# Entry
Amino acid sequence: MNKAKEHAVGERFEIDHIIYEVRPAHSCQGCSLYIEDENECLDRHGRFGHCDGNNRTDGQDVKFVQVGEATD
# Structure
């Protein structure tokens, strides 16, 4: 079961010094965690929270898009 915080659409958050933005999605294409050639998601450990609307409290399908790198 995924215990990661659910990030709202439009929210930006940081994981491992990378900044991601949550955006509405209709597929995995364009998600920074999706490896298209392997049809696989990199979030095996559930650090990002759910992307499938069936598992989100807002009911929206989302993708996580890298928008920058954190500066110290």
Q: What stands out?
A: The CA atoms of residues 29 and 37 lie 11 Å apart. The beta strands are 12-15, 18-24, 34-35, 40-41, 62-69.
